[in-house]
């Protein structure tokens, strides 16, 4: 996915320059097959100065088999503290996309560390979960997933919820059903299912991140469920969670406020409390 020519210059940064160089070479070979004159190079923060978009994916690895995304918080905060101040200083106008987990907590930390306006810090949040959910609904309903408006919102973690009450296809509100509830339960765990089989997940998240970059670069104003600093919706603020968000050249151009059911609103507030708890534990460590 990285070789789609939507940017003119791509810089890969890693603590291991060899790893970044290897990836840059491999991607350059692959991009020779695309209609692209994008340059792909390994380099330093200085090389990448003046970037329009930064995608942050550096991460520690899980240390136990039954890991949860929130386990990575304590290990990943120092990575953000190490890299983000210099990245923010050398690319002060960039839109920052956070991928590293726990992504909602990392998005909040990134806003604090960079001092960027919250509109320019976006976590991939429940975008991947929503894409996975729409893919299984699409299979079940035999309708293209683009035409299924169904969001998973809240945290990118075990307490995410499907916003059934605002889901529709072609104007029909046929969610929730037994099927949609079952497919949602499967979606919540499917990331771990992929991880348990291959040791990581990459294709889905890469394409999801590309769709955010695309909407920024071409100012497309697509609405996507991504992690943003919540603006008081349902009484929640000072935490990052996923809400349907319009994304354009300047980053977040608008956060939408869907009329959630009582049950969904309670699930959203529960996610807020849970993510705040991790933020506070991390701050005290
Ligand atoms: N938000 C999502 O939907 C989603 C989906 C998939 C993966 N993820 C998360 O993305 C992150 C990356 O996943 P991955 O599978 O690519 O992991 P990975 O272990 O393959 O890659 C992590 C990278 O970070 C680098 N790194 C480690 N410590 C570093 C440091 N101190 N400085 C610079 N670089 C450092 C490593 O060299 C490696 O290249 C993880 O936190 C993972 O949980 C999020």
From TrEMBL:
GO terms of biological process kind: lactate metabolic process
Keyword terms, alphabetized: NAD, Oxidoreductase, Signal
Domain Lactate/malate dehydrogenase C-terminal, chain residue ranges per copy: 126-283
Source organism of the structure: Allorhodopirellula heiligendammensis
Active-site feature positions: 156 (proton acceptor)
Molecular function as annotated in GO: L-lactate dehydrogenase (NAD+) activity
Positions with a binding annotation for NAD(+): 76, 99-101
Family from the record: Belongs to the LDH/MDH superfamily.
InterPro entries membership: L-lactate/malate_DH, Lactate/malate_DH_C, Lactate/malate_DH_N, Lactate_DH/Glyco_Ohase_4_C, NAD(P)-bd_dom_sf
Classification via Pfam families: Ldh_1_C (PF02866), Ldh_1_N (PF00056)
Residue ranges of every copy of the Lactate/malate dehydrogenase N-terminal domain listed in the record: 1-123
PANTHER family: L-2-HYDROXYCARBOXYLATE DEHYDROGENASE (NAD(P)(+)), L-LACTATE DEHYDROGENASE
Name of the featured protein: L-lactate dehydrogenase
């Amino acid at each position: 996915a990285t070789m789609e020519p939507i940017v003119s210059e791509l810089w890969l940064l890693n603590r291991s320059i060899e790893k970044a160089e290897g990836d840059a070479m491999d991607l350059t070979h692959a991009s020779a097959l695309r209609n692209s004159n994008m340059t792909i190079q390994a380099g330093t923060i200085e090389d990448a100065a003046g970037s329009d978009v930064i995608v942050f994916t550096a991460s520690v690895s899980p240390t136990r088999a039954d890991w949860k995304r929130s386990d990575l918080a304590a290990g990943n905060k120092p990575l953000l503290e190490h890299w983000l101040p210099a990245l923010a200083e050398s690319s002060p106008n960039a839109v920052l996309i956070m991928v590293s987990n726990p992504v909602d907590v990392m998005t909040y930390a990134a806003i604090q560390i960079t001092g960027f306006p919250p509109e320019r810090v976006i976590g991939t949040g429940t975008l991947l979960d929503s894409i996975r959910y729409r893919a299984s609904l699409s299979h079940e309903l035999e309708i293209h997933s683009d035409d299924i408006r169904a969001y998973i919102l809240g945290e990118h973690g075990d307490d995410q919820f499907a916003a059934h009450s605002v889901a529709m296809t072609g104007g029909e509100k046929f969610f929730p059903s037994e099927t949609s509830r079952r497919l949602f339960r499967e979606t919540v765990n499917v990331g771990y299912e992929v991880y348990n089989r291959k040791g990581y997940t990459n294709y889905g998240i890469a394409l999801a991140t590309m769709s955010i970059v695309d909407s920024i670069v071409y100012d497309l104003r697509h609405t996507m469920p991504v992690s943003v600093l919540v603006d008081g919706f349902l009484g929640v603020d000072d935490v990052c969670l996923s809400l349907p968000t319009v994304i354009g050249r300047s980053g977040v151009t608008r956060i939408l406020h869907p009329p959630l059911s009582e049950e969904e609103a309670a699930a959203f507030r529960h996610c807020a409390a849970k993510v705040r708890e991790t933020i506070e534990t991390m701050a005290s460590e």
